[in-house]
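Let us practice reading a record.
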Amino acid sequence: MSASKISKQKETCSVKVEEACVKPMAMSRRPSKLNCEEGTQELSRADSGQWILKIDWSYKSLSSVPEFLQNYQLCTILNLSGNNLDGGIDWLIHLKRLELLDLSRNKFSKIADACGSVSTLKYLDLSYNLLSELPEWILLLQKVKKLNLSCNPLEKSFHIHLKKAKWKNVEICNLENVNLVSIPDCLQSAYSLKELYLGNVNNNKYFHKSMFYQNNALWRIPELLPSSLSILDLSYVHLSNFEYDWKQLPNLKELRVRGNDLFWPSDDFTILTKLEMCDFSCCKMFLLPKDFGCLKNLCFINLSFNKLTVLPQSFEQFQNLYHLDLYHAGLETIECNLTQLPRLVECDLWMNLVDPSECLPNHSDLCSYLRGRLFPDEREIRLDERNSPSVVSEDVEKSSEGKIHCRKNKHHINY
């Protein structure tokens, strides 16, 4: 075989290997992926890691990471999540092509002071660690699209630096349980921001019981949120009212505000015509707008554990509604005909003054479907009973709030 043909075959082979390895989120087992079970002595040789683009050492009970990983300078994905790492990774400065870095669910109290991939990093997950402050390079990630800093005990004194962050291209931002009192200024001008999570999730049963997470306390809905926003989570942040210029969020599809003292929605709330999901559970709410049914795209409504007395007739307009949770909602009167909701498949009306079977002949089945989606400990506290006319006790409400969970893990970066 001629030298030119051999050279051409090598060139073609290299291109194919590289093309197979740069699929942005696929963690396939190929020569380009470094797995924890492979021999470290062999991998420490410089030539063996020439084409390593992805390193996945997640959930391997690691307490330290060998420094030879800095040799893989073509690496674009580094996943060290779910280990016992607690020291800084000083050699991050040598990795200059990283696009995804996942250090979540470790014990880091400090991260490297410098990173060589500030200009390339698009996905960063540092959630569930022990960080009290962040190095400056994280604040300078102008290309980052998915950012998860949740569940770190950031010092309040650090938040003056957090306001100077440069995350103007971020699309998904999670700042739950970071001792937040206001949002970084850059998020107000992050015109591609789609999902913003600012709530507190200490009640989630999947959190490690030995970890302590600082609660956010926002008190009011942050002003000047970008109009691109489609998901907003403000659960358990001590909101005292629901006042906001909602027409500034025309693309909002999911709103989660459970566990706040809202009492009633603002007058212009029903202008959110694209809203598909709303969670107002455990909000001490006693009044709903009569035109609530104007939100015709709603398909998921949670009003459980409130103090409502009337369900307005406008609910008959929800032709797309499939999930309606009214458990322990304080209802005395249901003005609408719930049998007119053609897509309703999940509904819980127990612990109200109304008779569920009179409102929905097939309520038993609908209730079973809804509770089948709940976590076991939340199902256990729900009773198949009608409420008595007595006022709902605060103790019952508090115990109920402590067992409300979000079903899906929405914060973890998918590869």
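A brief commentary: The chain has a mean pLDDT of 83.
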